[in-house]
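ingest -> validate -> predict -> emit
validate: passed (alphabet ok, no gaps, 380 aa)
predict: started
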Amino acid sequence: MKLHEYQAKGVFADAGLPVPESRLASTVDEAVAAADEIGYPVAVKAQVQVGGRGKAGGIELVESETEARDAAAAILGMDLKGLHVDRVLVESAVDFVDELYAGVTMDRAKGDPVAMVSTEGGVDIEAVAAENPDAIAREHVDPDSGLQPYQARRTVFEAGVDREVATDVARVLTTLYDLWAERDATEIEVNPVMVTADGDVVCADAVMNVDDDALFRQSELAAMEEEAAGDDLEAKANEYGFDYVRLSGNVGIIGNGAGLVMTTLDLVDHFGGTPANFLDIGGGAKAERVTNALDMVFADENVDSVVFNIFGGITRGDEVAKGINEALAQFDEIPKPVVVRLAGTNATEGMEILNTDLVTVEETLESAVERAVEYTEGDR
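emit:
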């Protein structure tokens, strides 16, 4: 479960982390009233779960009531990378002189949590890791003992953080780790951690993702789940019980099994495309579940083509084929090209059932993905 920024900041504030004063608003008048109450300058920030909001016009810094009204009117209702903005966070602006990054996640290669700090805050951390990995200081943590203060200080110093604020940044990192462990988070980060001219350290952003399987013991966070669903598609995915993540690309992806879907995502990237989603229908999916999955992907306006990757184990190829046929039969014209790769249990029976007039069939996963990417380029 991904928390919205305002939700994560509420959790951060309760843990004692320094966050800007803020108000949530769903109308222009509410946003202006919040800005007047907080005091200018303020930032008006779209509350959608997508990166790069500022570059996409979803964050505006305003210094007057008129500017606040104009910014709220522009951001509320906008389509931001395929997500509808219906709420904004109005928060006190931070006059900063430096931006840092701090976060905690699981290093699956080593099997341990890892705390991270970088002086390249304000930049997508994946980009930093790819272009300048030495700019990220990492500290692996023993879950039994947690992140010790000396480890946090060491990480901060290795990152090259100014000594005048190093203690406060280390405290932020320690608190983030404690939240990560106590709240069953999968990822938690602040990007950027802002440093003011007076040496104050402020958590200007907040990302917190929580393990869905642990929500039964996180009642406070579970209560946020409905609002945390980033858009109608994610809410529908929760209703259907799909493992679904909306991404920023245009190749829709459906598969059975997380590993299979992740492989498909990687291949889309390999062939020059960009994935629109991660959608795992799970094992043993029946026709109705397959139909629901296709309906969901078709509903994403960003999707230009769909690749269906099924390798049957307990999932039967004939059931998948029935679901695809049922989903496509409701359309007079197929809204987006569908490429199907079907292998494994009852794949032969499935191919006999599948209406190949409505889909493109490929024998291998590589050829299926390559064809789906071609379709997004208009090659049909």
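The chain has a mean pLDDT of 90.
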